[in-house]
Amino acid sequence: MDTKKIAAPLFVDLDGTLIKTDLLHEGILRVIKKSPLYIFLLPFWLLRGIAHLKQQVASIAEPIFSILPANNEFIKFLQQQKLEGRRLYLATASNIIYAEKVALHFNLFDGVIASDSNTNLKGKVKGERCKNISDRFAYAGNDLSDFKIFNLAEESYLVNPNKQALKKSINEPVTRIWLTPKPGVKVWLKAMRLHQWLKNILIFVPLLTAHAYNSIENITFALLGFLAFGLLASGTYIVNDLLDLDSDRAHPTKNQRPFASGVLQIKNGVFTILGLFSAALIISYFTTIGFRLALMCYLLLTLSYSLVLKQYVIIDVLTLASLYTIRIIAGTFLLDVELSFWLLAFSMFLFLSLALVKRCTEIKMLIANNLASMNGRDYAQGDYILMQTIGITSAFLAVLVLALFIQTTFESNIYHSPMLLWLIFPAFIYWICRIWLKTNRNEMTVDPIIFSVTDTGSLITVFFICTTTIIARLL
Q1: What residues contact residue 119 under an 8 Å CB cut-off, 6+ apart?
Q2: Does pLDDT of 207 surpass 90?
Q3: Domain 185-339, CATH number (from 1.10.357.10, 1.10.357.140, 3.90.1300.10, 3.30.450.20)
Q4: pTM for the complete prediction?
């Protein structure tokens, strides 16, 4: 038999090649999520070598291998090669614990070579290991370091290459390239959730309730606060996405988020987080000390929510309500105005109700998809009625607080026509009932705030409330 006609065994890289993500980066995130205290051990593991770090991370936390984002076009090629009798090997710098489970899931490979506690299988070391198995071999990779192996291989496949690898392939051509469109500005804006900046309009609430909008300085401070909170919130959304990779990938719609789908890389997300947080803190130094403290409280509470609190029923929605209320508190610190008890109570009850709208919508999705429980959340199908009851009760407590506040305005000189404020009362009841009716009919989006901004009935109601308040103040 002519051995030259037999295709050389194909060794396939894992991170970035077979799948669109890096298992070490994901593993570190999962370790930190499992216990934030591990972050202090990571440097000591690294001091003993990258191979030791990978071993420790893999032994503590692992992904759900069945939902990892795969390079499907390349996998189709591997399946065809397998059908034609070609021997396939998974050759990866990831730890052997991860590698063997990935190989088991894809059911394509005749063997696995990977890093262990002593050896980091990368670059030239990996190439030599491949050559020990078969003098003739082909290799598929995606990184600049893979060219050291390409130089030893009969055939070289470049899959989803990074910018440096693609540039090098111009001078050192490879057998075949699988290109994936690189993420543009639109993808990054989606990851940063710019539409969620609408929630930061709450910064301006004290500006309106304290009637301090006739000062350029106050408006400038409010705008700076809005920008700082927006940047900080975008950073925390990326943190949340990185810590929620498994639950997002198992979700029917969230699996298309940029990090969960592998469109954006984890390391780039970490650098973006640091940049956004730094920018927010720099802007905050042009405001007040109180605002900076509120900003830091928001950051700490959000990180606590992402790491721990979101896993506990009721505590999660109380935390979400608090995050909205902190924005209002920050607005009062910006303007150095008195913090109103009525405003705080109204905010907590209202946003607790809206947080429960969000959870009830997700439970509805569980029911629609016939899932017993929510991945990453402590909610089940049977919780819907109770959560709905608590949410509607909280909404009407907000209505009660609003009524009591309106009554107190008769004793002040803030509004020239305080009787007009009673028109707000039925309008607000209509809006909150509309929100819960939409939720019960399964017509609510996952985020009730964003729904309100795009819902005609909600917009008309908000416009009516704002107009009535201004008229009551002026007339």
Answers
A1: 51, 125
A2: no
A3: 1.10.357.140
A4: 0.84
